[in-house]
Amino acid sequence: MTLPRPPRVGDALQLEGEGRAPRELFAGVTLAALALPLNIGYATAAGLPATVGIYATLVPLVVFALTTGSRHLVVGPDATIAALLAAALGPIVATGADPAEVAWASALCVGATLLVFWAFRLGGLVRFVSKAVLVGFIAGLGIEVLTSQIRKIMAVDVEADRWPREIAELVGAIPDASAPNVAIGIGTIVALRAMRRWLPTVPAALVVLAVATALVAAVEPTGVGVLGEIPSGLPTPTFPTIGLDIWLDLLAVSIAIAVLTTAEGALIAQRYARQHGEPLDTNGEVFALGTSNVAAAVSGAMPIGASASRTAALSAAGARTQMPSVIAAIVVALVVLLFTDVVARLPEAALAGLVANAVVSTIEVGELRRFARLRRSELVIALGCTAGVLLIGPIGGIVIAVLVSAIDVVRRAAAAPWTELTADVPDPAVDRFRTADGGAEHERLGAGLRILRPGGPLFFANADAVRDLLVEAASDPDAEWLVLDLETVSDVDPTAAEALAEGIRVALDRGTTVAFARVTRSVHELLDRYDVTALVGAEHVYASNRAARAAYLGRHDDHGPQEDDCPC
After folding, report:
1. N or C, which terminus of the chain has less Cβ within 10 Å?
2. How many CB atoms neighbour CB 441 within 10 A?
3. How far is CA 94 from CA 47, 64, 84, 86, 239, in A?
4. Percentage above 90 pLDDT, the chain
């Protein structure tokens, strides 16, 4: 197997045009101000030390900037990763494992999975995850993270293994909530949203957290927890030394993170590439995400993925290269070296408010409304996925959602209608056909000729309908010929072929001639393989509906290729 070619190193770092450097520098500082508190918040939301979130803004960010082909995509921990890790960490940490090492191991598993995806060119597999599944799944994870942050804002202890019980216990714990914590958390959310609306160019997260930290330091309210001691200095090379059983426990959640990271990364990168008219190799982005997660594992960080909010923020700040990611890593490195004592005084309630505000945007209510307006089945899939995540957990939820999505696709494909074709005018020489509106219009094709067109692939789910339709058509006492226009049939599986053969035999036993028209080469080969062509006879396979009708009317005996009909 030949490995695909990875993106050229540093391609996305090149500045194009004069005067861009100041904008890239400003965007880099903006990214540092946005990413540092969010990464800390997502790490603590997952039950991890703050350092694994801080370190995710260092080496992984630089490695991604060097290996990506996208000039716009920004990476980092997000609500999806935090929720999936939180769900997996509980049982593992209960066995005595170090949470930080588990995070490193997860990052290594995610990176390795992504690199396997890249090596086998599996980046395109994300097309099999529908948007409804993604929207519903991410909304469910967002609700879980939001609930955990509400618990931190209230400063109450809640022990529940499922979301409904957690909500019930949170409601019951309202009288025990810490008023100062609630004030700080809600104040943080309100301030962030107000600044986003009226001061969009200001790094709101940094400003709000700085103000909250200063107020807590000045007032020293009772019961308000702070982040705590943060080790000073840059990360050292790390490698998880956990047991094989923990590696196996992390496999499922790591694959889930890798799949969602691939899907989100491809969607976000493609959106901005199209917006700026730039080429993009989606599989190359999988390589960049894989290498950056491996870099996270060996530099003491948690897994990272594509971040829609940070990508949008940098685009709004005028960034057009990956240089801001490198600048952000430098700024955070200076913070880690010089200002860890300041970071340690961040109020936990303010961090919880920051994360809660960020994850609200992952619940795409607008998309749910769009599904309700355009196709209700998509809304059902999305809401079912959300419910699955909340009721049975993230991994079970996505499995159920993908299964429901697949069943819906099969249902719609199986329900594709058969149509009957008729000529525009009652003239045997006419070469145009259209869909009949019903009644006896097929008589225009000839007293005993009917042309039927399937609406899609013939497979196991519509096999019975194929048989029944042929039997019903053959039961027409006036039907002498049944012509199946197979142009729109892209595939025939063995189950449908068996049903097709049974229907043809019934028609032949009743004295009705069955013929095929407009059969594509691939379907023709399948029908030959299934011995269905032999049933109707090779002489009854026509290149066009016109040729089939001419044969029925006895106009000529030439069954060779003729000009195709106009699509109906």
Report:
1. N
2. 16
3. 12, 33, 17, 12, 21
4. 52
